[in-house]
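This part of the workshop introduces the protein records we will be handling. Getting from the letters to the tokens is the skill we practise here. An example says more than a description, so a record of this kind follows:
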Amino acid sequence: MNSVGKLVAKMGLLSLLSVMPLAAQIDSGVDFTTSFPFYAGDTKLPAGHYKVTQPDMGDDHLLLVENLNGGAHSVFVEFIPTRSAQPHPKSDVTFEKIGDTDYLNRVWIEGQNYGIKVAPGTEETKAAAASKGQ
């Protein structure tokens, strides 16, 4: 194998290993409560109590955002692994507000430098483009 091929193989393995701790840490889930409706991916969810988990479905880039109020409001969303310089002091979620609408943005895991950025859905992408055009 030539040196470029070896370098590509090493970089691929390194990338895979850097995401593995993230998958192991989200299994217990992160609970959160909102007093406002929000989008997770392309799905608008009502205010309520939710839990974010990474389901064991063979796809390492999917999250389940599940309503714990007994409603049928749950959605799978794609995510992008992220890192922070310092370990996060507590598990939590953040939202991005564009106009009058909130979009689920990131999930942070207590004590970890790893986090999750929810991939923007169609509505969020349109809203961001519209806000930049104003």
